[in-house]
Amino acid sequence: MNIVYEVLSEENIYSIKDLCNELMAYQKSKAFIHPDFFDNMCFETRMIPSIKSAKANYIIAAKDGDEIVGYAYSTIASKFTYSGGFATLQCDAFFDFDSVKNEDVGSLSQFYIKENYRNKGIGTAMFNMSMNWLNSFDSIDDIFIFVSNGNDNALKFYLGKGFKISHQILDGFITVLRNFN
Ligand SMILES: CC(C)(COP(=O)(O)OP(=O)(O)OC[C@H]1O[C@@H](n2cnc3c(N)ncnc32)[C@H](O)[C@@H]1OP(=O)(O)O)[C@@H](O)C(=O)NCCC(=O)NCCS
């Protein structure tokens, strides 16, 4: 297996549409609090609006030959983007805006690797590339990751990379992680 990492341009995001939808199905399969919330989440309701509203986007694909076997999607966006609402859900703010001194925040927004390619270090490589990109912005001090309930492997992965649990939102549907500089 020879994995090559490639930054995708926004014109090429449709190449990860199926993987994005697999991620939503995976998260639904793990969730025990409101799994139904995922029913309205798909590439069109999560990825496209997020790309349009962000100030900068970074999508890396992991390729095995011609096949895309994973992707990581990071964004830079105004903190007020997180005022409430997540795909088609309405909720309170995702975090306390006063705890973020800058206008913009970074987020590792979506992360998915096909099952047969997990636990081989590919996620760590893509995580590091994503953090390097997010940290390359002088305006970014705060980085968030939103993990849906039941996804304990992902939670453990991010805690192992230095992220800390901040709080939960949507009745425990999502655990908010942040970097706490
Ligand atoms: C979460 C996810 C992106 C992590 O990617 P990954 O490629 O499996 O991650 P890695 O292989 O780098 O690390 C996973 C584990 O394997 C170990 N590992 C790292 N390199 C390894 C290697 N070369 N060989 C074997 N194991 C390795 C790591 O120590 C890590 O253990 P830890 O979680 O206890 O720290 C991936 O598992 C995934 O796509 N999961 C399903 C979707 C998902 O949950 N996405 C996150 C949504 S918030």
Helix content: 25-40%
Which structural class should the secondary elements be placed in?
alpha+beta
In CATH terms, the superfamily is Gcn5-related N-acetyltransferase (GNAT)
What is the count of helical runs? 4
Mean pLDDT: 93
Q: What CATH architecture label applies? A: 3-Layer(aba) Sandwich
Could you characterize what this model shows?
- The protein is built from four helices and seven strands, in the order βααβββαβαββ.
- Helices cover 27% and strands 30% of the residues.
- The model has no long low-confidence stretch (mean pLDDT 93).
- The longest helix is centred in the first third of the chain and has 14 residues, at 17-30.
- Strand 6 (164-169) and strand 7 (174-178) form a beta hairpin.
- The chain has a seven-stranded mixed beta sheet with strand order 1-2-3-4-5-7-6, with helices on both faces.
- The chain is of the alpha+beta class and 181 residues long.
- Bound molecules: coenzyme A (COA).
- The site of coenzyme A has 19 residues, from helix 1, strand 4, helix 3 and helix 4.
- Coenzyme A binds at residues 23, 26, 111-113, 118-124, 147, 151, 153-154, 156-157, 160.
